[in-house]
Amino acid sequence: MRNAFAATVVSQCNKDDYFFLTGDLGFMALEEVQAAFGSRFINAGVAEQNMIGVAAGLAREGFKVFAYSIAPFCYARPFEQIRNDVCLANLPVCLVGNGGGYAYGHMGPTHHALEDCAAMNALGVRVLVPAFGEDIPAMLAELTSPTYLRLGYDARPKNTIAPHYAPWRQVLSGEQGAIAALGPLAGVAWQALLDQPASKRPAVWAVTEFSGDEIPEAFWSQVMGERLFVTEEHIAAGGLGMHVALAMAHLGIRVSSFTHRYAIGYPTGRFGSQAFHRAQCGLDADGVHAMVFGG
Amino acid sequence: MHHESNCGHLGGNFSCIDALMTLHHLIMKPADRFILSKGHAAGALYVTLWSLGKLKDSDLETFSKDNTLLPGHPSGDGIPGLLFPTGSLGHGPSLAAGLAVAAKHTNSDRQIYCLCSDGEWQEGSCWEALAFSVHHQLNNLTIIVDQNGLQGFGKTEEIISCSDLTSRISSFGAHVQRIDGHNCSEIKKSLENKSSKKPNLLILDTIKGKGLHFEGRMESHYLPLSEEQYRTACSKINGDKDS
Lengths: 295, 243
Description:
The complex is a heterodimer.
Chain A: H1 2-12, E1 18-22, H2 31-37, E2 41-43, H3 48-60, E3 64-70, H4 71-75, H5 79-87, E4 93-98, H6 116-122, E5 126-128, H7 135-139, E6 147-151, E7 168-172, E8 178-182, H8 185-193, E9 203-207, H9 217-223, E10 227-231, H10 240-251, E11 257-261, H11 274-281, H12 285-293
Parallel strand pairs in A: 1-2, 1-3, 3-4, 4-6, 5-6, 8-9, 8-10, 10-11
Antiparallel strand pairs in A: 7-9
Chain B: H1 10-14, H2 17-27, E1 33-36, H3 42-51, H4 57-60, H5 92-105, E2 112-117, H6 124-135, E3 141-147, E4 150-151, E5 154-155, H7 156-159, H8 165-171, E6 175-180, H9 184-192, E7 200-205, H10 219-222, H11 227-242
Parallel strand pairs in B: 1-2, 2-3, 3-7, 6-7
Antiparallel strand pairs in B: 4-5
Helix pairs in contact in B: 2-3, 2-9, 5-6
């Protein structure tokens, strides 16, 4: 997805009022951004706290700024700079965390980002989790406030077309309730249920903006009195599932069952690929199938 | 002001107010930028802004009280000349570097100033910002260090020594000057003596609580003044003025 991101930055954001900072990451992905942006592209080195402070300084002078790194280095290391320098001043800085969730699998737990969305959401940052590469242009159409863009791997089934972008959108029809899947997991659920008849499967919804504020009426009407599933490659605390549950409580919506699959960390103390960790959490295609149909 | 609001941090305000006044009255132009990285010296900055006519008596009367725009560390909101909320140490140099990059990018001759404490250089982020600023030749940036030698819980040299701060910063490639931080003419001269290629670091040898009866003592860092201490301090300041 980072290639789609880089292409979007070049095509949409290569303007005089944009800067792009990287914490020394982006090899074989950001070269075109570097070439296009020229002096507005700064490799700030392995110094993320300074990178965010510099981004805030630039934004305070009217620039819109991308600050890019591997997800945990982008949101966790400079957390206080994000809170004080970017958020308290409400500046248009887009933190770009590549490899959300377990995406950097074999690199180990220091490179995973399992609580990033909750942490950024708690600061009032607009959190964007694209499900598909095609989502990114719409997401970056305007940058006016602190934003966190969590990039992962597009898992859309082959020969399918993603519906037009919306923060919540149905990507697969179904008549047995609905799955709300965060970001790329929408593609996983879509693939897992694609061959099932609509009459026997839940609908799959791709959720790409991380809050409960955007939930459309059409989603609620599908789950009212029916089964509701939430999947997210993120911890439960402060996650999408909690947002959905809170919204349900506020609205007084009742479902027949609520099933939540989320990142449970490292239950066996062993580490592996993103697929390995997803399987441990029941977030892969087999896990989705089992969640819906049992077994 | 501090006494009325029962607010401490007087020592670090009095150690830097000579520099703040000199900088704002004799050096800075309207387009220039200033960041108070040592946000606990907010009182000194508010008084400096008041002396420039940017704050009123009635503003200062609300200092560190309920419903104020002037909390004990600057909020960065609603006060002319304040760009960022500061108070957690180690943020200012990076923010200032960002402002300096922006000025250079737009070919502005705007100058960027940032005031730090000496204990603040125990924060790794300061060194990140310094390395960045040297690498990008941010000669429009001046970082002032109020080296009063005392921090929250003891002497800086006994906690994590910064006694060789001048040589450490020089070794990064910055243009460093070290002067008496209570000599306004020296401060002015040094602020005017800028490098054409390097970021400028001005290290001020200062006395915490300068001018007060407890100058150079630990209690000047946190403690608010009792009524008796307040009267003693006023007498000393007035006495110094008369003598």
